Amino acid sequence: MKDEDYEKELRKLQTELVKVQRWVVETKARIVVIFEGRDAAGKGGVIRRITERVSPRIFRINALPAPSEKEKTQLYFQRYIARLPAGGEIILFDRSWYNRAMVEPVMGFCTSDEYEHFITTVSGVEAALVRDGIMLIKYFFDVSQKEQEKRFLKRINDPMRQWKLSPMDFESYSRWWDYTKYIDKMMAATDTEFAPWNIVKADDKQEARLNCISHLLSVIPYEEIPYDGLELPKVRKKDKD
After folding, report:
1. Do residues 49 and 37 lie in contact, with contact meaning Cβ atoms separated by under 8 Å?
2. Rounded to an integer, what distance in angstroms lies between the CA atom of residue 235 and that of residue 111?
């Protein structure tokens, strides 16, 4: 796709996202969108394109850091539940509670019992959210091993991108097949009728962004609600001294 065609299509989709924003505010809808995927798969890029033309008060991004010592003693889902939407909000999770399904078991950050408890209970938690009226949409961005290597090398060789790299990135890169095993197990256990996984093939970044946003628009049952009173009032006359 030519860049000009991509930008034209992206603008159309972002215009529709503004309509979604208006609908969410008016209907007090509550929407949660989860973005998971392999490292360097482009999750951050699509989130930026989703949010760059809408209000950050309505489309709110949550990218939680590693849990604090206090949070480690809490119910695992507790810090995520605290960030769920109120009426009229869309929450975008840049990684989510699914850390425990992939990153934590691969890197040894949780015990096997903690992993098994999560993988057998998470669908029940999601079912409760959906029953309460939250729309839950889950995306997994997948890239080929060759493309991931290409993107990591680009970051290594570009001083303006090196900040994106961490020791965890290099470790995860070396454990491609461990991640694959846990991704497969996660999909098998948590791809449910009420909260299915939507796989985004992300070797082509532009195509992945357009496909993801198009799909997001297709599953939200929004209607266009026109803005009223969009006329400038007359300027009042200056008060006399």
Report:
1. no
2. 67
**If we measure between CA atoms, which residue out of 95, 73, 200 comes closest to residue 104?**
95
Q: Is the pLDDT of residue 188 over 90?
A: yes
Nearest to 33 by CA among 125, 134, 121: 134
Provide the 8-state DSSP code for 233.
P
Specify whether the CB–CB gap between 135 and 220 falls below 8 A. yes
Identify the CA nearest to 188 among candidates 122, 129, 141. Answer: 122
What pLDDT, in 10s, does the model give residues 82-122? 999 999 999 999 999 999 999 999 999 999 999 999 999 99
The strand ranges marked E within the chain are 30-37, 59-62, 89-94, 135-142, 197-201
* Helices 145-157 and 167-174, packing angle to 10 deg: 150
Count other C-beta atoms under 10 Å from residue 50's C-beta: 23
Cα gap 187→180, rounded to integer Å:
11
Task: Give ∠ CA 36-41-44 in degrees, rounded to 5.
Answer: 70
Question: Is the whole-model pTM more than 0.85?
Answer: yes
